[in-house]
Amino acid sequence: xxxxxxxxxxxxTKGYTQKDLAKRLNVSVSSVGMWESTSQIPTAKKLxxxxxxxxxxxxxxxxxxxxxPEERAVGASETKAVKITPLEDDMLYxxxxxxxxxxxxxxxxxxxxxxxxx
Length: 118
Fold this sequence. Notes:
Radius of gyration: 19 Å
Structural class: mainly alpha
Helix content: 55-70%
Number of helices: 8
């Protein structure tokens, strides 16, 4: 997840508006808006303040490998942060094709079959 999405998620979880967050961080509402629209990243000092406000680490704020349920729903996957082999890529392609032609139940059956092989 990008910093922008992470910040927005944290802000909304706390029930803060952009104006509330701006006031707490002593910045303009437009700064918060730019941070959440990916057009700007705060200074290191502000990142530390943001992390403290939400009780998370700066690493957590900047971690781009975590996928939200919303990102997953539109097709994002952990593979965007991890290199996959050509064989894994082929397997994913076939898995998706099975889903298109036979449905989710067929995909779940494949997963169960593979889990039994572990």
